[in-house]
Amino acid sequence: MDTKKYPEVIDQLASLRRAPPWELFFSDQLEQEYRHFLNPWYRDAILASTMVAALLLTTSHLLGWYLGIELTLSAQLLRCAAILSLLGTWLYVRRSRTEHWQHWLVAWNGLLVVAAMLVIAHASASPIKQIYYTNIFFVEVALFAFIRLPINFASTTALLMVVLVSSALYLDRMSLHSSAYLMFLLVGGTVLCMVIAFRMEKAARETFLQAQVIQLERDQLRQINQQLGEQLAQDRVTRLFNRMRFEDELVLSRAGDRASTPRQMLLGIQVNHFARFNELHGQNAGDDLLRDIARQVRSVQAVHPLVAARISGARFVLLFDAGDEPALRACLEQLRQRLLGVNVLQADELVGQGIGLSWGGVHLVQDAERNPCDMIDRIFRHLLPLGERELTSEQYRVVTRFAAV
Length: 405
Description:
About 65% of the residues lie in helices and about 10% in strands. It has 14 helices and five strands. Strand 2 and strand 3 form a beta hairpin. Helix 2 (about 30-65) packs across helix 3. The protein is rod-shaped, with a radius of gyration of 40 Å.
C-alpha cells in the first residue's frame, strides 16, 4: 500500500465535508485520478446532452420553416452555428481519448445555445418569446446538474449566462412585470442549479475518496495476506520453504501426463547427530549451522533452478531438474563443494563423534498411482557421507541410485 497516499486521502475526506465550493479540489495527482475516475460518466453525459440539444435546435428550425415563422438573419445564423458547434463537440468527444478541451467546449456550447435562444426570443412574439426565455433554465440544468462542469467552469459560465439574460431582458420590449418575472425565474434557476451542482460534485468527490480508501485498505489487506502466506510457507530459522510448501511445489511439478512432466531429482541432505551438536554447542549454534547450510543451498539456487526446503530438524530436501544430466552433475558437485566449506563441521571433535553431512537422492518419473511426497522420508533412510573427494560417475550413480517413483 502507498503509505503516503493513504493519509492524504483520509485528510482530504475529513476536510471535504466542511469545504466551501471554491476549495473542492485535491492535490494534482489525486485530482488527476478523480478526473480519470469521472471521465466515463462525463463523456457519456456530454455525448447525450449535445446530441439532444442539437436535435432540439434542428427541430425548432424545421418547425419554424414549416410554420412560416419569420426570424432575423442573425437569429437563424446563430442557431445554425450553435447546431454545428454541438455536432462538432459530439464528434470530438466521441473520437478523443483525453478530456483536455471538453470543459471549454461544453461551456462554449452552453453560452452559444443561450445566446441563440435569447436572439430568437428577442425576434419572436409572445408567447413564443417567453417559451424561449424559460428554455434557458433547461440549458442550465443540463450544464450544471447533468453534465456537471467543474466548479470553476460552472461558476464562470453561470455568471456569463446571467449577464447575457440581463442584457437581453433589458433590451427586449416587454413589460416590467414580465421582465422581472423572467429575471427572477432565470436567476433563481441558475442559483438552484449551482447549488445542485455543488452538492453533486461534493458527493461525487466523497464517493471517489471512499472508493480510494477501500481500495488502499484492500491492497493493504492483500499485502498482509501475501506476507503472512510467505511466512507460513517458510521455515522460521533458515527462511527456506517448510515441508508443507515443498510438498505443494512437488505435487504441482508432477501434475500432468507422463510426456509433459520433466525428469526431476529429489535430493536429501542431513546433519548427522544434530541433537548431539546442540548439546555440545547450544541451540543458537545449531541454528547458525542450519542458516549456514541454507546459505550454501541458496548460493547454488541462484545459479541452478531448484526448490529447497528444511523439512524437520537438520534435514533438507532439494528438487532439481534432471533433464540435462551433465548440468545436474555439475550442480551437485558445486553443492557438495559449498557444503564441505561449512567450517563448523570440520572440527576434529565433531568428526570424531560422527557429526557431519550426508546426502542421497532419487530420480522421479511420472506414476499416477504413487505419491511423490512419500519419497521424501524414504530418501533419508539411504544417505551416504558427503565425502571430500570429487564426485565421480560411480559416486553420482550411488547418490542417485534409488528406484524411481
